[in-house]
Amino acid sequence: MVAKFELSDDSVVVIIGTGAGGGVLANELAQKGVKVVALEAGGRYLPEDYINDEWDSFGQLAWTEPRTTSGDWRVSKDFSGLPAWIVKAVGGTSIHWAGASLRFQEHEFKAKTHYGDVDGANLLDWPIDPAELAPYYDKAEAKLGVTRTGGRPGLPGSNNFKVLEKGAKALGYKEVNTGHMAINSVEYDDRMACQQTGFCFQGCKWGAKWSSAYTDIPRGEATGNLEVRDHSHVARIVHDDKGRASGVEYFDQDGNLQMQKAKIVCVAGNSIESPRVLLNSHSSMFPDGLANSSGQVGRNYMRHTTGSVYGVFDKPVRMWRGTTMAGIIRDESRHDPSRGFVGGYELETLSLGLPFMAAFLDPGSWGREFTSALDDYENMAGMWIVGEDMPQETNRITLNHGVKDAYGLPVANVNYTDHPNDRAMRDHAYARGKAIYEAVGATRTLPTPPYPSTHNLGTNRMSERPRDGVVNMHGQAHDVPNLFVSDGSQFTTGASENPTLTIVALAIRQADFISNEMSKGNI
Amino acid sequence: MATKVSPKGMTRRQLLARATVAGASFVVGSGFVAARNAAWATELTAISPTAFATLVQMARDIYPHDKIEDQYYVIAVKGYDTAETAPEIAMGVSALDAAARGKGFASYLYTSWEDDRVRILRGMEESPFFQKVRGGLVTGLYNQKAIWPVFGYEGESYSKGGYINRGFDDIDWL
Ligand SMILES: Cc1cc2nc3c(=O)[nH]c(=O)nc-3n(C[C@H](O)[C@H](O)[C@H](O)COP(=O)(O)OP(=O)(O)OC[C@H]3O[C@@H](n4cnc5c(N)ncnc54)[C@H](O)[C@@H]3O)c2cc1C
Ligand code: SF4
């Protein structure tokens, strides 16, 4: 029985966005008996709707409304209107994600303490004790069915993994395996095992990969406490004269402006849209945007230090067969400044189909140097670099008043410039990637620049002191007690791991906090 | 340069017989372009045949794959043959021809060697015309399923049950 709440019902928790963060929070709250209205800008798509075709799938699921870019990152030149690759659908980017699910390391929660002062970086320790988060990581791994945790077996190694593994071992790397993946290696939680179709980025048609679209969302709806309104684009959060959030204005599927009253509002639109919503919610009481007395809303945008390395061999690899990202080398994710940078990085297998390879291998390049690489597509192996990038105040999301979306709202501008630490790390990782493939006999290796951001973090960060960030250790806004941030934008720093497991762990933890505070009458 | 005969209602052979020659590998007539070996021919509505032949040559020079036939490059740029885009293409091709003349060739199409043509393109790679054509090719060419087998790419796999029993881990040379 799917719930239906009145617009005037001011007892509901309104969640903006239904991806990894919002989708999980919605279900967790609904399971506890809390009434939830989830507003999602995109439509509903289930495994039977997903398309095994890169551009068609992108057209079906991606957020393609206008955004602008600035800064000296190469994405701004190559993909000036597409700074990030994010899904707009019920389930959010958890439809596209590859499933790599790693816990942050203890030192990464205390980056400022361990890395010290880094020039130009706005480093801060997370206001969370890693030991306190550990049980939530357990719950998140169980929810997502993460392999190599909780007694769940690892996935079998694909061709692409075997090449990576052999090169890594030749170089003496020790922590090399098929990853901690939110992809079933055996049937689990009513979802079947991976069939190695190789279109993890396009939505898993078998449901072997976890996505909130077909797990948490329908389960939350089944409680009768959750109403998901799709095609509902949030314009702004409104507040009462005491400065508490009182409702959410959104455009419904017919483009009409509606106003849903709320007891609590949780923002989970991913790290570009979440600060955009807060900034667009400015009022006479909050002229710089909601929850922004620190001026930190939109700042410290992080996207991970990324890049890819492709190795070309004299024989076929056929990297597109099988799971996209089930393969990892973890040895470089330690903090070891003797390498010339703070923090660390992971190396993970990656494959793109031919159409995306053509678009992303070396955007803008042409001629035989480029096409000869593609001619060897069948003989390529690929890996992706995921490293900790430095939070910088000037890397930020701002409102671009010169460009409006279909509803007349100013769009987000994404400004990003690599920190010298990011560049040093990327160069180190490129060199290691090249060495790994050469150790297996690569005849050519190609460094590929960062793609539009798939990991978007930090723009409403957690801080101990209100002046350093936007939310406290529970994701609760320092300025507005009944306003929460429930996605990756609350990350204080980015760590070297893919972010989603941590987003999910924080959402489960936040659901506990919110329902406790509600029952105590504190919010 | 082209004769005023409409190609409508003629056989491909007649078409080719009426054609005037442009460049090395194309046959250009009124309202159509064809391959010299008659492997393909395409009718045009808005764009001039010479400009279209130039565009096809340019497409191959930008993303040269010797195992891919011209017809796929034709498909990749055919979308520019509209009343809306034809003027812009005509201007771009004129600029390209002017650049070729600057290097001592009669036109881009009459620049015989790939190396020379690539040099001409390098000289104008920042121009909006070049960027538009190159950018369009990324999807216009590589998203054609018909050419994927040339690269070994197998495309959709769900309907075949994925690769779990079809070689996801069959590498035998490591
Ligand atoms: C190709 C790809 C591969 C990835 N692989 C991995 C991986 O292997 N491991 C990993 O950890 N992470 C991976 N990620 C990242 C992962 O998908 C994200 O970290 C995660 O989905 C973020 O969760 P979220 O809740 O913050 O946002 P999302 O999941 O993006 O959800 C946000 C939702 O909010 C909606 N929304 C936004 N603004 C509004 C508004 N104004 N009104 C209403 N709704 C709105 C959006 O439509 C969207 O549905 C990958 C991402 C991509 C693109
Ligand atoms: S490879 Fe596995 S997880 Fe990825 S899409 Fe296919 S079945 Fe799903």
Would you give an account of this structure?
The complex is a heterodimer of chains A (523) and B (174). In chain A, a hairpin with a 5-residue loop joins strand 6 (233-239) and strand 7. A six-stranded antiparallel beta sheet of chain A has the order 4-11-12-13-10-16, with helices on one face. Chain A has helices at residues 20-31, 54-61, 75-78, 106-109, 111-115, 130-144, 159-170, 216-222, 270-280, 354-360, 368-375, 420-438, 500-519; strands spanning 13-16, 36-39, 68-70, 176-177, 226-229, 233-239, 245-251, 257-261, 264-267, 305-312, 328-329, 345-349, 380-387, 396-404, 410-415, 444-448, 483-485. Helices cover 25% and strands 16% of the residues of chain A. Chain A has a single domain, classed as FAD/NAD(P)-binding domain, CATH 3.50.50. Chain B has a domain at 49-145. Chain B is built from seven helices and four strands, in the order αββββαααααα. The radius of gyration of chain B is 19 Å and the shape is elongated. The termini of chain B are far apart. The relative contact order of chain B is 0.11. Chain A binds chain B through residues 52-53, 55, 156-159, 162-163, 166, 194-199, 205-206, 315-318, 320-322, 353-355, 357-359, 364, 366-368, 370-371, 374-375, 377-378, 440, and chain B through 62-65, 67, 118, 125, 134, 138-139, 141-143, 148, 151-159, 161-164, 166-171, 173-174. The structure holds flavin-adenine dinucleotide and iron/sulfur cluster. Chain B: This is Twin-arginine translocation pathway signal. Chain B: InterPro entries: TAT_signal (IPR006311).
Concise account of the structure shown:
Helix content of chain A is 25%, strand content 16%. Chain A has 523 residues and is of the alpha/beta class. Chain A has one domain: FAD/NAD(P)-binding domain.
